[in-house]
DNA sequence: CTGACTGCAAACGTTTTGCACGGTA
DNA sequence: TACCGTGCAAAACGTTTGCAGTCAG
């Protein structure tokens, strides 16, 4: 709890119960959609409004202390910003798992082969998690 | 033109002028959104309905002879299915360019480090194209 | 105390659906 | 001819906005 308060304060966002619930969910679940956030919090917090979730997710995105994950065939999911990593996505249950892979050689190869500069990358690996195999 | 007729026939989809226009646009533009498809075709084909574009794009997705490209901060774009490749995305003008990179070592590394099977991957590289630098 | 946040309802844009008509095979 | 595709209008969504009341700092 204390850690989430600190996280919000560090990002110059006022601490409210709704925001604490949102960052706590993201921390525990790892990757979560707006609708999932709303449904889970709503259970213990009936007055919550969907609009509030959207407003908060958007302001957290602007402060870029959370990141959006667009996934084919799924709603966008959100995660707390942390060190660069890739995502394993289960095509059966939709589960998303972080994995740290070295993409440096790939990126330098891309810089060589193209006339783009590159400042960011996103790698998604689709397959089946151990439960769904 | 003949090539597009063949492409549709090979995928057991009836050949209509609207569908020909859509696959031609995808072939020429490479990556294009529903709205862009609609606007471009509408100019030469005033009776076209947005609903028709959606219906066709969805059925082409199901037959998986086109692929969806979800990009942070942009509308989804669609491309004809072809050999596996990655995407360079310009953060300024939104341009998308294909690039072929060898992701094999990355994927075998991921297989080793995780308990997932992997059947597909998507790599997006964000930066600036030569015009926008 | 002041500005920011919340909840509600309305507005908005996008995507889907149902149906009658027209075109493809 | 039989079925599928088209266009239109309406409906269904997801997301955003405006506003009045409330709360955090």
Main features:
133 residues, 42% helix, homodimer, Arc Repressor Mutant, subunit A, Dna Ligase, domain 1, 2 domains, DNA-binding, alpha+beta, 5 helices, two-stranded antiparallel ribbon, three-stranded mixed β-sheet
Percent strand of chain A equals: 15-25%
Question: Please, what is the oligomeric state?
Answer: homodimer
CATH topology of the largest domain in chain A: Arc Repressor Mutant, subunit A
Structural class of chain A: alpha+beta
Structure description:
The structure is a homodimer of 133-residue chains. Chain A has 133 residues and is of the alpha+beta class. Chain A folds into two domains: 2-80, Arc Repressor Mutant, subunit A, CATH 1.10.10; 86-127, Ferric-uptake regulator, C-terminal dimerisarion domain (Dna Ligase, domain 1), CATH 3.30.1490. In chain A, 42% of the residues lie in helices and 22% in strands. Chain A is built from five helices and five strands. Chain A has helices at residues 2-10, 17-29, 34-44, 50-62, 104-113, and strands at 66-69, 77-80, 86-90, 96-99, 117-128. In chain A, the strands form two sheets. A three-stranded mixed sheet of chain A has the order 4-3-5, with no helix packed on it. A two-stranded antiparallel ribbon of chain A has the order 1-2. In chain A, a hairpin with a 5-residue loop joins strand 3 (86-90) and strand 4 (96-99). The radius of gyration of chain A is 17 Å and the shape is globular. Chain A starts with a helix and ends in a 5-residue tail after the last strand. The model of chain A has no long low-confidence stretch (mean pLDDT 96). Chain A binds chain B through residues 68, 70-72, 86, 88, 90-91, 97, 99, 101-103, 106-107, 109-110, 113-130, 133, and chain B through 68, 70-72, 86, 88, 90-91, 97, 99, 101-103, 106-107, 109-110, 113-130, 133. Chain A binds a DNA duplex (25 and 25 nucleotides) through residues 14-16, 18-19, 34-35, 47-52, 54-56, 58, 75.
């Amino acid at each position: 709890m204390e850690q989430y308060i600190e996280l919000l304060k560090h990002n110059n966002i006022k601490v409210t119960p709704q925001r604490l619930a949102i960052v706590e969910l993201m921390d525990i679940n790892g990757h979560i959609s707006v609708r999932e956030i709303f449904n889970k919090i709503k259970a213990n917090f009936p007055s919550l409004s969907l609009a509030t979730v959207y407003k908060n997710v958007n302001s957290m995105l602007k402060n870029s202390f959370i990141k959006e994950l667009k996934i084919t065939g799924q709603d966008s999911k959100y995660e707390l910003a942390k060190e660069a990593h890739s995502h394993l996505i289960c095509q059966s249950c939709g589960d998303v798992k972080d994995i740290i892979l070295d993409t440096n050689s790939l990126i330098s190869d891309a810089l060589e082969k193209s006339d783009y500069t590159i400042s960011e990358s996103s790698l998604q690996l689709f397959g089946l998690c151990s439960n769904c195999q």
